[in-house]
Amino acid sequence: MYLVESRGGAIACMFLSLFLLGTWPAVFTLLERRGRLPQHTYLDYTITNFLAAVIIAFTFGELGESTAENPNFLIQLTQVNWPSILFAMAGGVVLSLGNLSTQYALAFVGLTVTNVITTSITVVIGTSLNYFLDDKINNAEILFPGVGCFLMAVCFASGLHASNEKDNEAKFKTLANNKIEEIGEQVPIYKEICLISDARDIENVLGTTAKAKVGTADFLLEVENRRAIKVFGKSTYTGLGITFFAGLCFSLFSPAFNLATNDQWETLREDVPHLSVYTAFFWFSISCFVIAIILNISFLYRPVLNLPRSSFKAYLSDWDGRGWASLAGLLCGFGNGLQFMGGQAAGYAAADAVQAYPLVGTFWGIILFREYHRSSRRTYTLLIIMLLMFIVAVGVLMASSGQRKRL
């Protein structure tokens, strides 16, 4: 099998992983804003996400000569290594729950803030655990200041979300006042607008136009009318709560994968080699796939957050956006695989530098979805500081990379 052994190769894997992991949430957001049910999107995503793990296992996992210390993928499937497999599958379960929560968090708090909070929690908790699991091969004097930058980014991201909410509220108040002058009758202001559940009512009351200027209240209402998950009227804490839960799930999957591949707790027999990255990723993806299928099919019939009911038959016939959802699964699958390949070589704590993918997500959020257009100076200031924290953090975490000793 192919092994990444050099520090340079590990960093290359991290950079490519960072781009892939930063792009797939943007695809999710695009589909949700076009009105596609998240259950349908996630089912498509789940299938190709697992397919990516299979492709990696049968390519990189089968390259080269198989040895007793480093058996190829198919040989390792026949070995008695269930303790490590269970660690890998536990990691897949928490990742699946995290990704499932993320698709709803993206609608509530936006692409940028969701990515920043979830990844920062992942680094603060997960990187600290990986540092000790990896027998401290990373430079602590460099690593933990990087973790501190991520923690600061969480604070700035929460402030950014709150500031952006205030900006939107001010826009709706201005819109309401303008409509009062225009049609001479009482029009609901922002807080009352949020209580309107039917998009047609919003259009009738405010008379929105088809081509609203980006960043205006009319533009925000048009987005709300089209999207699958209606967020107006929902508490800010609902979105942040979902986001923090996703972050806690993400913080555990990398340490679990670390235990699966390096057996720090010595659960395997002495004559059984450690799971390779590719075998562990295969089992990791199986549990991720199974959990996602069970939960999303149940959500078709018992939807959450007031989403419309659907059915498995309706999902099968929904081809609008299926290609994009499938692409998101491949991006995430290969992104996770590259992260693990780099982490096995340079330490999983350093590999958590890929959690700076909100830098990529923010680019997509501003370019594709026009997030923060026509916002206040305070909002722009918080956005810039948050991004600077991430730029510093990714550089510092990569600089802490070590070299894992081969057995």
UniProtKB/TrEMBL annotation:
It comes from Daucus carota subsp. sativus (Carrot). GO terms for molecular function: allantoin:proton symporter activity; ATP binding; uracil:monoatomic cation symporter activity. This is Uncharacterized protein. It is found in: Membrane. Keywords: ATP-binding, Membrane, Nucleotide-binding, Transmembrane, Transmembrane helix, Transport. The keyword Transport applies. Signal peptide: none annotated. GO terms for cellular component: membrane.
